[in-house]
Amino acid sequence: MNAPSAPRRTTVVFDLGGVLVDWNPRYLYRKLFDGDDAAMERFLATVCTSDWVLQQDAGRTWAEGAAALKAAHPAQAAMIDAFHQRWPETIAGPIAGTATILRELDAAGTPLYALTNWSHETFDHAWQFDFMQAFKGIVVSGHEKLVKPDPAIYRLLMDRYSLVAPDLVYIDDNPHNAEAATALGMHGIHFTSPDALRRELVTLGLLRGH
Predict the structure, then answer these.
(1) DSSP string of the chain, one letter each residue
(2) pLDDT in tens, 187-202
(3) Full-model pTM
């Protein structure tokens, strides 16, 4: 008796920040700390932490988030406010190699979707990138008040767009988010570089090798 074959993956779901969009608060704070990387890293580790940012991604307003931090760190009020007020400066641009992969997939007729942890108040900035038009559907955590790696947000994507896990490849720069997709039956890929992603998509039969 033959072993069951692996599912044929037909549809690709992209994370945005860190995969297609070169987002990093250090692009802003390196300027604000005048190149003092040690002070910047202390600030990002103890004040405007990734867990704090995730709460805005989960639907909390930036005003609420900033107020909570400024109560705890009043001397850092201006630096805290800058995170939202100068948010566009946290984006360096597209990650060109991944954007090229997305366009190749789109040209081949592969259905494309996006699932992103992103604040509803800053998501409009994503539309500056022309590759956004390639997506047949996008789920934004801030609008849904759910964040990855909660399985509920992956299920919401599938339910909303009539997708099934065995068809899906899911790409994310956070390994926990990729693992959560795999646990639901998708093929989760931890994104490390466009070249590594291309190799894996070729292996899956979604891209042709060069």
Answers:
(1) -PPPPPP---EEEE--BTTTEEE-THHHHHHHTTT-HHHHHHHHHHTS-HHHHHHHHTT--HHHHHHHHHHH-GGGHHHHHHHHHTGGGGEEEE-HHHHHHHHHHHHTT--EEEEE---TTTGGGGGGSGGGGG-SEEEEHHHHT--TT-HHHHHHHHHHHT--GGGEEEEESSHHHHHHHHHTTSEEEE---HHHHHHHHHHTTSS---
(2) 999 999 999 999 999 9
(3) 0.94
Angular region, 36: left φ>0, alpha ψ -120 to 50, beta rest: beta
- State the pLDDT at residue 2: 53
How confident is the model over 140-160, as pLDDT tens digits? Answer: 999 999 999 999 999 999 999
